[in-house]
Amino acid sequence: MPQLNLAWWLINFLIGWTALTIVFTITLNISLTTNLPNTNTKIEPLKNLSWIWT
């Protein structure tokens, strides 16, 4: 039955992406809270994230 195969693929796809986004947000929050030398995190958060992309 192709409908069952498509539904199973969609379920696995959604579970995988939600797990990836949850892990990404958890690691991002951990890196933001542990990166304490920059004190302007509330005013300019993008400057604090610049070390991740370099």
UniProtKB/TrEMBL annotation:
The alphabetized UniProt keywords are: CF(0), Hydrogen ion transport, Ion transport, Membrane, Mitochondrion, Transmembrane, Transmembrane helix, Transport
Q: Which GO terms describe its biological process?
A: proton motive force-driven ATP synthesis
Tell me yes or no: is Transmembrane helix among this UniProt entry's keywords. yes
For this UniProt entry, the molecular function terms from Gene Ontology, in alphabetical order, are: proton transmembrane transporter activity
Keyword Transport part of the UniProt annotation:
yes
Stored InterPro entries: ATP8_metazoa
Q: How does it sit in the membrane?
A: Single-pass membrane protein
* Localization terms from the record: Mitochondrion membrane
Q: Which residues cross the membrane?
A: 6-32
Main location group: mitochondrion
Q: Which Pfam families match?
A: ATP-synt_8 (PF00895)
Q: Which GO terms describe its cellular component?
A: mitochondrial membrane; proton-transporting ATP synthase complex
Family to which the UniProt record says this protein belongs? Belongs to the ATPase protein 8 family.
Q: What is this protein called?
A: ATP synthase complex subunit 8
Protein's organism: Archaster typicus
